[in-house]
Specification:
The chain is mostly helical and about 375 residues long. About 50% of the residues lie in helices and about 5% in strands. Helix 5 (about 100-115) crosses helix 6 (about 130-150). The longest helix is centred in the middle third of the chain and has 21 residues, at about 130-150. Bound molecules: acetyl coenzyme *A.
Amino acid sequence: MIGATPGSAGVQTYGRGLEGLVAGETAISAIDGVRGHLLVRGHPLEQLVQRSFEEVSHLVLFGALPDADRLRRWSAELERFSEPPAPALAALQRVPGTAHPLALYRTMLTVAACIAPSVEQESDPAWSRPARILSWSASLAAAAIRHLAGQAPVPAASAPPGHAQRFLFQTLGRLPSPEEARAFEVSLVVQVEHGLHAAALAALTVISTGADLGSAVLAGMGALSGIRHGGANQLAFEMLAHLPDVDSARRFAREALARHQRIPGFGHRVYKCPDPRVALLEPHAVALLRARGLEQRHEVYRALRDEVERALGPRGIFANVDSITGLVYHPLGLPPSAFPIPFCLAIQTGWMAHCLEYLPHGAMIEPGAVYVGPVN
Ligand code: ACO
C-alpha cells in the first residue's frame, strides 16, 4: 500500500503486518521460509535437537556452544535462580483462579521483577539477567500450572538437575521418564528462537526504549499469548481432542475448509512450506503417545493434516509447530490451557538474545505511519 504523509517530501510505503519490512540485522538466526530451514547461530536446527536446553540457550544468548567448563557454569547459573522470590509465588493466591495460566505466570513474573534486589544492576554478570529470567520463569510457570489443579508449588530444591527436567518435576510433581524429559527438552530446543516474529519485535521495541530486560520479556509474553501466535497450540489440540477418529478428522477438515474457517496450527507468516519444527518433534510425540496407549491421536492428527495440506498446501499453508506441541504436552499430563507456557519458556531465550544484540547500538524503535485522515 502506498500513501503520502502531508508535509513529508517522499512517498511512504508499508506492507500489511509490516510484511517485507526489515527491522535490523541479526547474527542470531536465519529462516528460509521457502525451503523450510532454520539456522540458529549458524547451526541447522536439525543438529541442535541432539543437544540440551542449557547448551542451546547458551548458543542463542552468547553466540557459541559452550565448552565443558562454560556449560557447567551456565547450568549452575540457571540452577542458582530456580527458587523465585516468595511474594511472586504468593501472587498466585491473589489472581482469580479462572485466569489463563499464561496470565497467571506473567503476573507472577511481574511481581518477581519488582522484588529482585539487583535486577538490572551494572555489576550483574551479563548472563545473570537472562539466567534469572529463564529460571524464575520456569519455576513460576510450573506453579501456575499446578495452581489450575489446586496443587501447591513444588520447590526446586528437590528437583533433578537440568532445566527441562526441573520444570517437568516442578510441574508434574514426579520424576519424568527419560523419554518424557527428552521429548520435552526437544520441544524447548525447537522453539528456542525464531527471528523477529511478533513477540520478539514487541520485546525489542520495549528494550529499545531503555527499559529493562524483564519488561521486554513481559511484552513478548503479551504478544505471544494471542491465538494467531503462541496461543494457537492450545486451540489446535482442543480441536483435535474433539475428533474421535480418522474419518471424523477428515470430515471436520473438509467442512471447516468449505466454511473458510481458519484452522489453528496451520499457516505461518514466514514458512510457506512445511515448518521444519514439526518433523523434528513428531517422532517424540509419537513415542510419548504410544507409551500412554494414545497413538490413535497421532493418526487423527495425520488425517487432519493430510486433508488440510492437500487443500491449502498449494497456497503455502502447512502444519506449523503449534499443531504438534500439544501431542507432546498432553501425554506428559499438561492441561491444554498450559500448552502456550513451554513455548514461552523456550522462546523468551530468543527474545532476550535479540534484546542483548540490539542494546549496544540500537535506536529507539519508532516507525512512522501513513496518514490517511482528513486535513482540515
Ligand atoms: N486455516 C485456513 N486458512 C488459512 C489459515 C489456516 N490456518 N491460515 C491462513 N489461511 C488463509 C486465510 O484465510 C487467507 O485466505 P483468503 O486469502 O482466502 O482470505 C489466506 O490464507 C491468507 O491468510 P493470512 O492471515 O493473510 O496469512 P498469514 O500468512 O498472514 O497468516 C497466520 C499467518 C496468522 C499464522 C495464519 O496462518 C493463522 O491465523 N493460522 C492459524 C493460527 C496459528 O496456527 N498460529 C500459529 C502460527 S505459528 C506461530 O506463531 C508460533
